[in-house]
Design a protein that fits this description.
It contains 2 helices and 4 strands, in the order H-H-E-E-E-E. By secondary structure, the chain is of the alpha+beta class. The protein has one domain. The mean pLDDT is 79.
Length: 116
Amino acid sequence: MSQNKERGEAVRRGFTLIEVIIAAAIVLILSAAAIPMYGGFIKDARQNAADGLAETAGAAVNSYWRKTGAVPEITAPNTPPLDIYYDNAKYKISIKDDSVVVEDVKYKVRKAVYYK
């Protein structure tokens, strides 16, 4: 037996309630500061993805326009935007008179690239 038990003293094991509450409060404060920053990173990533898709789509339309002298058929009046799923996100791509517009449906970020 240990000396503490022989003397009748209790051996302390674990944490007190106040220590657990203080640790939980610290975790909550840190997470409350980190969550808004994480949302900003997500939106920036989606904007970068939209930029990349718009640049790629703009280059493709520019190449098609230079070879044929016309823009692809998805530019016909009353044609809905083309839906593309990329990196677990939905994008709408539409071709206007002189630009390609890419829009992230969920985060409402958009990018227009001129192809002429």
